[in-house]
UniProtKB/TrEMBL annotation:
Belongs to the thiamine-phosphate synthase family. 2-[(2R,5Z)-2-carboxy-4-methylthiazol-5(2H)-ylidene]ethyl phosphate binds at T440, T441, T442, G477, V497, T498. Signal peptide: none annotated. The keyword Amino-acid biosynthesis does not apply. Condenses 4-methyl-5-(beta-hydroxyethyl)thiazole monophosphate (THZ-P) and 2-methyl-4-amino-5-hydroxymethyl pyrimidine pyrophosphate (HMP-PP) to form thiamine monophosphate (TMP). This is Thiamine-phosphate synthase. It catalyses: 2-(2-carboxy-4-methylthiazol-5-yl)ethyl phosphate + 4-amino-2-methyl-5-(diphosphooxymethyl)pyrimidine + 2 H(+) = thiamine phosphate + CO2 + diphosphate; 4-methyl-5-(2-phosphooxyethyl)-thiazole + 4-amino-2-methyl-5-(diphosphooxymethyl)pyrimidine + H(+) = thiamine phosphate + diphosphate; 2-[(2R,5Z)-2-carboxy-4-methylthiazol-5(2H)-ylidene]ethyl phosphate + 4-amino-2-methyl-5-(diphosphooxymethyl)pyrimidine + 2 H(+) = thiamine phosphate + CO2 + diphosphate. GO terms for biological process: thiamine biosynthetic process; thiamine diphosphate biosynthetic process. One of its GO terms (cellular component) is cytosol. It is an enzyme of class 2 (transferase). One of its GO terms (molecular function) is ATP binding. Residues 327-500 form the Thiamine phosphate synthase/TenI domain. It comes from Colwellia ponticola. InterPro entries: Aldolase_TIM, HMP/HMP-P_kinase_dom, PM/HMP-P_kinase-1, Ribokinase-like, ThiamineP_synth_sf, ThiamineP_synth_TenI, TMP_synthase.
Length: 523
C-alpha cells in the first residue's frame, strides 16, 4: 500500500451532518486522502435555519496545528468557515509558517459566507479578510461570493469577477462556481488560472503564457440533496491537488466528482418526491466518462465548426509502434522495418534546412507506404503533402486547424491529463497522444507525468462507442521493460524516442532489434 497524501481541513462543524467538516471527511476518504480536522466553529443548524456559530479558540486551533505538524504535515490545506478576525490572523500566520517549512504546500480557500437556509457564518468585512485572501493559492467562491470579493458595482460575469479578484489579491487560481451559463440547463464553472505559480508546480511548458481561463460545463442535475456540495467540491479539489494533479485536472476531476454525487442522489429525491434539503452524496473516485464536464476554452470556441479530421484508415490493422525520430538517417534506418506510422520531430535545424529534410522524408515514407507525421512544421507538412501533422498544446493556439483539415492531412494532438484530453477530443483529430506516461530524458515534462493509473483513467474518457473512438498513442519514458504494461491499458500505439535511438547504450542491442521486440510486445 502506498502512503496516502494528507490534507488538513480547517472548517466548521455542521451538526446536521451535511456540510463543513462532515462533507470534507466523507469526500477526502472517498478520494484516498487522509483528512485531519481543525474545527473553526461549532454551528447549530438544520435544514430550516442557522441558529448560531460558536467559534473555537485560537489556543485550541494552534495546539492542534502544532501537534499535527509533528506527525501529519499536510500537502494541501483546505479552509472553509473562518469565524472571526482572530482566526483570520491566526490562519495568515499559520500559512506563512507552514509555507516556510514546506514550500510545496497548497492552500485552498472556500469562502463560506452565507448559509443556504439564510443567515451568515461570520460578519467579516473584505478588509478583514484581505490578508488571508492574499495568502491562499486557490479560491472557490460561487458567483455571489465572487461578486462580493470583486467589489464591482455592476453585476458581472465570472470571467470579469475572476480577473478582478486576481488583480486585487493575486490568488493563483480562481474558480467561480456557477460562473457562466449560457443555457439555463447547464451548470458551468469558470477558472482563471495563472500558470507556473502554484508552489512546486509547473503547469505548462510554454513559459511565455501568463494565464489560462476556461469553463467546465455539464448538464445541470436536479437534486434536493445538495447540502454540503460546495464544501465537497473544494475538498475534492484539495484531494486531487494532494494526489499531485495540476489545477486544471484537479478541477475537472472535482467537477466529475460533484456530478457523480448529484447523479447518485437523484433516485432518492424522486422516491420522496417532495422538497427536501438533504446532504450531498459523496461517492468514490470518478471514473465514468458520463460524469466528466465539457471543457470550453478559446481554442474549442474557435474550432466549433471544424469537421472531423481524416481517419488513419487502418483497415483492421493495428497502429503498433510509433517511432519519433529527428533525421533522415533514422528514417532511412527504420522505414524498412515494416512500420505503420513514424514521426519526424526536428528541433535544432534552420528553417531552410528543415524544408529540405521534410521534402525528402515525405518522398521516402511514401515509397514505404508508411504514415509520416511532421511535428511542429504544419505549413511545410501541407506544402509538401505529408500524411499528417503532430501538434502540441502550445501549437494549438498558433496553428490553423482549418487549413490542415482542408488540405486533407491527418492530425495528431498531444495531451497531458484529463482536461487537455477532453478539450482535444472535441477537435476530432486522427489520433490523440497521452503523455508523459513515465519520466523521460527527451524533454522536460515536469509536473506532467501521468503514470499508468492516470493513463487508464484518461482512456476511459473516450465515448463508449467504437465508431467515434479516436485512437490513442501513449508516449514518454516507454521502453522494452515498460511497454507491456502500457499496452495492457488498451492504447492503440506506443510512441518512443530513446528506446530506439539509445538502444545500444540501454540494452546493448541494435535499434532494429529493439523495434522488433517492441513490435512483438504490442502484438
Ligand atoms: C506521438 C507524440 N505524442 C506527443 C508528442 C509531443 O509533441 P509536442 O507536444 O508537440 O512536443 P514536441 O514533440 O514538439 O516537443 C509527440 N511529438 N509525438
Ligand atoms: C516528445 C515527447 N512528448 C511527450 C509528451 O508527453 O507529450 S513525452 C516525449 C518524449 C518521448 O521520448 P522518450 O520516448 O525518449 O521518453
Ligand atoms: Mg511539437
Amino acid at each position: 500500500m502506498t502512503k496516502k497524501p494528507i490534507i488538513w481541513t480547517i472548517s466548521g462543524s455542521d451538526c446536521s451532518g451535511g456540510a463543513g467538516i462532515a462533507a470534507d471527511i466523507k469526500t477526502g476518504h472517498g478520494l484516498g486522502v487522509e483528512v485531519c480536522q481543525l474545527i473553526s466553529a461549532n454551528t447549530v443548524q438544520n435544514s430550516q435555519q442557522l441558529l448560531s456559530v460558536n467559534s473555537v479558540s485560537i489556543d485550541i486551533l494552534q495546539q492542534q496545528a502544532a501537534l499535527l505538524m509533528t506527525d501529519k504535515p499536510p500537502s494541501v490545506i483546505k479552509i472553509g468557515l473562518v469565524a472571526n478576525v482572530a482566526q483570520v490572523k491566526w490562519l495568515v500566520q499559520l500559512l506563512e509558517q507552514l509555507k516556510q517549512k514546506m514550500p510545496t504546500l497548497i492552500s485552498v480557500y472556500d469562502p463560506v459566507g452565507q448559509a443556504t437556509v439564510g443567515g451568515s457564518f461570520n460578519s467579516l468585512t473584505l478588509a478583514q479578510l484581505r490578508p488571508l485572501l492574499q495568502d491562499v493559492d486557490v479560491i472557490t467562491p460561487n458567483l455571489l461570493e465572487a461578486q462580493s470579493l470583486a467589489q464591482l458595482a455592476e453585476i458581472s460575469d465570472a470571467e470579469r469577477l475572476a480577473k478582478k479578484i486576481y488583480d486585487d489579491f493575486a490568488i493563483h487560481s480562481i474558480i467561480v462556481k456557477g460562473g457562466h451559463s449560457e443555457i439555463a440547463l447547464d451548470s458551468s464553472d469558470y477558472c482563471y488560472h495563472q500558470l507556473n505559480q502554484l508552489p512546486g508546480k509547473q503547469d505548462n511548458q510554454d513559459k511565455t503564457q501568463a494565464a489560462i481561463s476556461y469553463q467546465l460545463t455539464s448538464k445541470r442535475i436536479a437534486s434536493h440533496y445538495s447540502h454540503g456540495g460546495g464544501c465537497s467540491f473544494a475538498t475534492a479539489l484539495s484531494a486531487f491537488l494532494a494526489h499531485g494533479y495540476l489545477v486544471r485536472d484537479a478541477f475537472t476531476l472535482a467537477k466529475a466528482f460533484i456530478n457523480q454525487g448529484f447523479n447518485a442522489s437523484e433516485p432518492v429525491s424522486k422516491l420522496y418526491g417532495h422538497q427536501y434539503y438533504g446532504a450531498f452524496e459523496q461517492q468514490g473516485w470518478p471514473y465514468q466518462a458520463a460524469f466528466f464536464p465539457q471543457a470550453v476554452d478559446e481554442v474549442s470556441k474557435k474550432y466549433q465548426t471544424l469537421p472531423a479530421f481524416n481517419s488513419l484508415n487502418l483497415a483492421g490493422k493495428k497502429l503498433g509502434l510509433y517511432p519519433v525520430i529527428d533525421s533522415l538517417y533514422w528514417l532511412k534506418r527504420l522505414l524498412p522495418l515494416g512500420l505503420e506510422i513514424i514521426q519526424l520531430r526536428i528541433k535544432n535545424l534552420a528553417l531552410a534546412d528543415v524544408e529540405q529534410v521534410i521534402i525528402e522524408a515525405v518522398f521516402l515514407a511514401k515509397s514505404y507506404d508508411t504514415r509520416l507525421f511532421i511535428n511542429d512544421y504544419w505549413q511545410l507538412a501541407i506544402k509538401h503533402g505529408a500524411y499528417g501533422v503532430h501538434i502540441g498544446q502550445e501549437d494549438l493556439q498558433a496553428a490553423d486547424l482549418f487549413k490542415i483539415q482542408q488540405a486533407g492531412l491527418r492530425l495528431g494532438i498531444s495531451t497531458h491529463g484529463c482536461y487537455e484530453f477532453l478539450l482535444a477530443q472535441q477537435l476530432q483529430p486522427s489520433y490523440l497522444a497521452i503523455g508523459a506516461v513515465f519520466p523521460t530524458t527527451t524533454k522536460d515534462m515536469t509536473g506532467q507525468i501521468q503514470g499508468l493509473n492516470n493513463l487508464t483513467q484518461v482512456l476511459a474518457l473516450r465515448p463508449n462507442n467504437n465508431i467515434t473512438q479516436i485512437p490513442v498513442v501513449a508516449i514518454g519514458g516507454i521502453n522494452l521493460v515498460r511497454a507491456a504494461q502500457v499496452v495492457a491499458t488498451g492504447v492503440e500505439s506506443i510512441a518512443v524516442v530513446t528506446a530506439i535511438t539509445e538502444a545500444k547504450s540501454s540494452y546493448n542491442i541494435s535499434p532494429e532489434q529493439v523495434v522488433e521486440k517492441l513490435q512483438k510486445i504490442i502484438g
